[in-house]
Each structure stands twice: as structure tokens, then as C-alpha cells.
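User: We ran a pulldown and think these components assemble together. Before we commit to crystallization trials, I'd like a predicted model of the whole complex to look at. Sequences follow.
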Amino acid sequence: QKEVEQNSGPLSVPEGAIASLNCTYSDRVSQSFFWYRQYSGKSPELIMSIYSNGDKEDGRFTAQLNKASQYVSLLIRDSQPSDSATYLCAVKKTNAGKSTFGDGTTLTVKP
Amino acid sequence: DVKVTQSSRYLVKRTGEKVFLECVQDMDHENMFWYRQDPGLGLRLIYFSYDVKMKEKGDIPEGYSVSREKKERFSLILESASTNQTSMYLCASSGAQYLSDFGPGTRLTVT
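Assistant: Here's a predicted model for the assembly, 222 residues in total across the polymer chains.
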């Protein structure tokens, strides 16, 4: 079992819709959770971090964390074609230096 | 606005060659990382460093070594390049809890 698993995708949504990206993790001691966006041919960039159960909103992005279910998600409201990218979920254990990444979900937003 | 730079964007080497990949950050970060990214396998951690002359193995250290003689520089060394090391190599640094800054990547081809 992989430490961090994401929907393999690809995910396609129409412009203006809500895109929902999901991630599960296997280690219950995980404490920090991150979403990165990676455009084709570019490096990943951090877009959201979440550390406690519940929702965290930043503009059109909402991260949701449920530690009991070992589940973290990213919602993108009013999706735009510029949101088309691969989204990487990453998990980190407190006091450990490394982040473990999922394989990523590729999102396409169609005009 | 230079943050994390890598010595080459594209590199072609022959099997058996010793390969050096250089990474430099200008943010005074303590932590630096080397990842490789392959289709279907996501981002995998090779080595990371918490401080000068400190190093820790990641998930796939076999065939690689690292050097960190100065805080701003973290080098990845392929002692004897093999074709299965053909990949995109990403350097990253962080001074905080999360992995914040990636370099542009080096696409290495070993023939």
C-alpha cells in the first residue's frame, strides 16, 4: 500500500464547475498536509497547507482534512482553464524533514 | 527573484559516467532535498539534508550520493550513471515546516 494515494485521473470538468481532488494516507501519525500544483514542464508550487481537521479556504481553493478517515481533499470552485495542471498531495510527519507525495491527479478544465 | 537554481535544465550522459547535479538556494534555508519524478511514480525522495555536512537517506538512495559543504549548495552525485536513472531531478529547499521552493528541474538522459 502506498503511503499517499490519489485518484489516478485524469479529471475533466467544465469551466465554472467545482473540481474535487482526493487523497488518502496510510500513516496515522501524519500531521501536515499539502497540495501542490504542477503545470506541464514546470516544477511543483505549494498552493495549500492544512494541519487540523476541518476546512481551510483560500480564494477559490478549499482544503478539507479528516484525520479519522485519513483523508484530505482539495476543492477548486469556479474552475478556470488556467487551473488545468497536475495536483500533488503531500503528507509530512511532525518533526520529520521529508514530505511524501502522491502520484498526482491531472485536472483539465474545459472552456 | 532567484530562489532555487539548478546547474542544468537538460543533461545527456553516457552509462558509467559520474554525474554531478548542483542545486543552490539563496533563502538561507536549513533544509534541502533531492527528488526524482517519473511518470506514474510521482515524486520520490532521494536524499535530504538538515544542515551543512548533514545528510539523510530518502526512499530511493541507491546509486546516489550527496554533498553539502555550504548551506546554500546541495549536490547530487550519480557515481556510475545507469539508464534507469534517466529522469527529471528536482531540488527543493525549506526553512519552515513545509516544502516551499522547488528548483526548475534537471532532465537527465543516460544513454
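The interface with chain B takes residues 32, 34, 42-46, 49, 88, 90, 92, 97-104 of chain A (CB under 8 Å). That may be worth checking against your pulldown data before setting up trials.

User: Thanks, that helps.
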